[in-house]
Amino acid sequence: MSDDPQNDLDDKQPKPLLETLRFEPRMEAHLRESLIVLRDDSDDRALRKRIDDVLAGRASLRDLARSADFTAVIDSKIDRAVEEFDAIPEAEREADLERAIAEAHTPPPSEPPTRRDDPGTW
Fold first, then answer.
1. pTM for the whole structure
2. Does residue 24 contact residue 18 with C-beta atoms inside 8 Å?
3. DSSP string, the chain
4. 96: which of 19, 75, 87, 102 is 20 to 30 A away, CA to CA?
């Protein structure tokens, strides 16, 4: 244990996947959950291990993102998503867009949760 209690707290929290997310716990949690979904959806044992290493802080997210096996997985998911999007009728797309715009313009709650109190996800 160190003399500084804050350092002890920091040791118990996982290192952020990206330094820029250090003070964005919701984005950090969302990114972690996304990696877990990708890992759990993969049949490739080596890729699953690489993702586990990133989640545990033993490897960098940047190296994972630049790897051929990860790129292949993402490319296939993008192709599938584009196919699904193209299959959505135009009227439904327009309604979804209008709904998203309305949600984006909804004022935030009067008292947003603090970052420490709400480590929720997006």
1. 0.62
2. no
3. --S-HHHHHHHHSPPPSSGGGTT-HHHHHHHHHHHHHHHHH---HHHHHHHHHHHTTSS-HHHHHTSHHHHHHHHHHHHHHHHHHHHS-HHHHHHHHHHHHHHHTSPPPSSPPPTTT-----
4. 75
Please report, in tens digits, the pLDDT of each residue of the chain (122 residues total): 445 444 444 455 677 888 888 888 888 999 999 999 999 999 999 999 999 999 999 999 999 999 999 999 999 999 999 999 999 999 999 999 999 988 888 776 666 656 555 555 54
Q: What residues contact residue 89 under an 8 Å CB cut-off, 6+ apart?
A: none
